[in-house]
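ok so I'm stuck.
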Amino acid sequence: MTNTRIGVDVGGTFTDLVALGGGDILTAKVPSTPRDQSQGVMSALDASEVETGSIFALAHGMTVATNALLERRGARTALVTTEGFRDILEIARQNRPSLYDLTQDRPPTLVPRELRFTVRERMGPEGEISPLDEESLERVVSAIREAEVEAVAVCLLFAFMRPEHEKRVGEALREALPDVHVSLSSEVLPEFREYERFSTTAADAYLAPKLAAYLRNLAGKVEDAGAPTPSVMQSAGGVVRIEDAIVDAAAFVLSGPAGGVVGAAYVGGLGGYRDLLTFDMGGTSTDVAPIVSGEVQTTTETIIAGVPIKLPMVDVHTVSAGGGSIAWADAGGALRVGPHSAGAEPGPAAYDKGGEEPAVTDANLYLGYLQNGAELGGEVVLRRDLSEKALASLGKQLGLEAEEVALGIVRVANAEMVRALRVISIERGLDPREFALLAFGGAGGMHACALAEELGMNTVLIPRAGGVLSALGLAISDLRHDYVRPHLANLEDVKAMELKETFRDMENTAAKDLEEPEYTRRADLRYRGQSFELTVEAERPFEVEELEECFHAAHERRYGYRMEDEGVEIVNLRLTATVPVEKPKLEEPTREGDAERERREANFGGEWMEVPVLDRERMGHGTSVEGPAIVEFKESTCVVHQGWRGAVDNVGTLVLEKR
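replied:
not stuck anymore, here's the structure
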């Protein structure tokens, strides 16, 4: 392969690679290496056997930032804020994580109280109210030096509009503590709402040292192997240079899932499907997201591990139901699945790597959906006898046979995933019956038909590269930067020239960051008196009337009503700058001959039956399948339920329809 473009996605269980070049697509899958994810990246490159000298670009998606938040293993971080506002992170929004559980506490803040410091100053919306007291600043710098922190978040009041004091604090800290990372809220998130701004900036500081160390380590290994410096997938979709990622850590907490959604939108669009619910089931978790009219949907209302991060991110909802999710009996004797996962080490019981508790993969193997003795990732060989032993052991606690436990695990996992799909469809004002379900990830195809039936969906799409679709999304992702400027005003008072000037300011910044980018302009709007806003895009964003109509339509779609007699307020202006990369054309050749590899006993709806097992590599454009059946892809498996039939389309996607 020449002029090869590589995408490498690190998941909780497997690391996937896709190589594009000369019209060919090459894939590889190896076990992840949780202690050092870069080792998995290099193993995937070795397994692909791609000549590193032929690699033109390498894009990477990872879970380093996500795991650091989930496990609270980020940097020792301090916070500097305005005197009197030390506890904003603690006060938060005063909402409880579980409304009716009075014993459940919020997750701990990223910055403990003893590491939160204040300076004497005050800015207001019109400018300086009290000057920055240099003596208090000196005391804070001295205290932070003694605290021996790795990072500092600086969040002063009204810094999103008046950043002068905040920049002075940052300058003093960077001068006195050159080895400490400093995040300024006016650079990370120049938006109003103190808590979300503080929280996002604290997350940025908390994650930056660990992310920087990982990315520099990875870059060194990749460059030593003769490949180009990696670019990194950000949470909003689109990749950035590694230098930009190091200074913008909070924007990468959904790095891995974003690649999958980008890949799904591309493959679905090639087949003519522009309204999709994506369903990515991997080894550790399941990620679902909506794609509307071919566009990946983004949001600024994401909460990760109890931490609000108000940066643009792909609108992904994640649940802890993956192939490695462990089944267990709760105190009441009920069967539960997750949130704990067997991960890559030791993995499900079937992996024969020390795991003894049954996982979703063990249930699927026992029920015949996976082949006994199948090889995963080049290193793992599935053993059905170990799955049966683990299922029987759990069955003793529940008073059930191994088969009943396996069927129950699949049903419980499906229920969890259906709830997730409802969140990103029905709760967003989208009717799932008008969408196709695009399933990918190593385990997605095994559960897709059951989920579609539950939601009343009639079309399921399984891409040829479904097992490594996140890596494909990385390989085809555009370069992207996002910018935001506050613009608080009544929409009726806003002049088109004001909007043009603000957008022009952001475009000038974008032109310095990217070479000849394309621009998408959006605005955050709300009805007067509302607490939160919707982001809308208009063909002519400088036309106030068009912006208002777009907002009314978006509000009605999301909440079911509009209030045209209410005033509309503009809150922020947003600019997305992208530099498109070349996308491959996917063409599926026709193939002659029988695709059936064998017939196998599998359990459908509690009944064992012998069903055909089709080899996806022997299927081509037009090859049909009728359920019940099993289709084995190179990196994944699709279970076609009774009542479903379909065929491979011209871009290699298996399109299943409910009869």
